[in-house]
Amino acid sequence: MPWATSRSSVAALAIFGALIAAATLLAMNPVAQRWSGDVPLLGEQARLMLTGRHDESLFLSWYPPLALVPLGLPLLAGSGPTYAFALAAEMAAVAAIGAYGVAGAGRASGSTSRDLLLYGALLLATAALVVWRYDILPAVLMLGAIWGATARRWTAAGITLGLAAGLKVFAIFLIPVFAVHAWRTGGNAALVRFLSSVAIAGLVSLGVYLIFPGATPLDLLAFTANRPLQIESVPGSVMVLLGALGMSSVEVSFGSFSFNLVGDAATAAPGVLRLLQLPVLLGTLTLGSVAVWRAGRSRGATLVVAVVAALLALLVTNPVLSTQYVIWVLPLAPLLPAWVRWPLVGAIGLTALLFPWLYSGLVELEPLPAVVLVARNGLLLVAWIAALIWLVVASARDQRSSDERPGEQDGRPVMDPEIRDGGHARQDGRADGGWPAQRQGQDDDPDEQPQAAAPELP
Q1: CA-CA distance, 253 to 246, in Å (whole number)?
Q2: Residue 426 within a domain
Q3: pTM (2 decimals)?
Q4: Domain tally for the chain?
């Protein structure tokens, strides 16, 4: 669609320009600059790695080695402020490319310009996190994987998801949901193509370790497993609020590259969270996979909700919930049903308020930042629960309606574009506010139903 492509290009240019302007203003703001120290630190660590001094660097304890690509590329421009601006320009370009992913994945589900507008607004609100970190890159790659999956481009979906996992480990946990989508939609051939593409991208990512003798993925695993309770985690935010209100004694210390809580409860919390995280994540992935398997015309929309539900399950049960982690779900927020979208948008907005504007007060245990943090985490929990309810309702109704559709009963692949939500129930099986609606005996067999053209990847 030339008009849609033109719309995406305009949005991409506007996003790039707005983020560059925001990065320039942030660089001149003393409040924001106080929390930009990670940028030169990351640049220096990347420089040590790329100049053969990896034994002096902690980089591979913090990030997978593939992260050297986005964090090392700006070193070509220079160091100090030049490096910071080059990194900001790189991440602004990545975010701008994400506009094509939002439009492409959204076009398969009947999106309009509002999705691009919301995407741009969220990026601008969280500009400090977008341009001073590299989390927007794996997030956009994950969006590309969803676009590829809904367009039945299994190789593209597998490679982009595999690269996302090579940059940030969170994407590994999404493989089961994508695999179920591929198998249900395209059968064994699609599943093999998808998983083999993920494996190839994963081997490339792991292969980077060979460049640095002595370094292994165990370094990253050990660092992650031993991190203390971070101030922004769900239980951490409650402790911070109680401490800010004088209802308990809590201390803040800096270590493991984050601000953490000190005390008996804070010491015990990470172990409890890790015990909870596995069953919570497995349960969420199972529910999402079942919903994707049972979905008919709404399989693309169900995939988006299932992915977001899994990511939120990971975040709310993690001992570390750094502000930039919400960037992982930002590109998907415009594509969600309304009941899941708006709590998540609220959480992203409060995160933008916290960092960098209220972060000094947060680490000093002031009441207002503590209240904002608790509200942010509360909205993340609400969005996760809403996603789970949506998946349960969708799964139940899709199961009932599949009993009337022979094409579903015999397991033939089914994939049709769908319209996500709107002011009335439509033939995509969705109702007001984005909740799944009962289908009226529609035949989803692609041989019998006309289909919209699948969106093309750029």
Answers
A1: 18
A2: no
A3: 0.87
A4: 1
- DSSP state letter for 405: -
**What type of residue sits at position 406?**
P
pLDDT band for 406, please (50, 70, 90 cuts). Answer: low
Alpha helices, DSSP H, located in 126-211: 127-132, 136-150, 154-167, 175-207
Question: Cα–Cα distance between 72 and 12 in angstroms, integer?
Answer: 24
| Beta bridge mates, 253 | 260
Distances from the Cα of 229 to the Cαs of 92, 240, 248, 277, 310, in angstroms? 31, 11, 17, 14, 21
Q: CB-based burial of residue 58 (10 Å sphere; 0-12 exposed, 13-18 middle, 19+ buried)?
A: middle
As a whole number of Å, the CA-based R_g of the chain is 22
Report the distance separating Cα 237 and Cα 370, nearest Å: 7
Q: What is the pLDDT of residues 34-58, one digit of tens each?
A: 888 789 889 999 999 989 888 888 8
With b for 16 or more beta-carbon neighbours within 10 A and e for fewer, the 98-118 pattern comes to bbbbbbbbbbbbbbeeebbeb
Least confident piece of the model among 269-273, 397-401, 453-457: 453-457
Range of the domain at 374: 2-409
Amino acid identity, position 122: L
Task: Report the chain's terminal Cα–Cα distance, integer Å.
Answer: 12
Q: Is residue 393 part of a domain?
A: yes
Model pLDDT, residue 430: 40
Taking the C-alpha atoms of residue 14 and residue 18, their distance in angstroms, rounded to an integer, is: 6
What is the spatial distance between Cα 59 and Cα 331, in angstroms, rounded to a whole number? 27
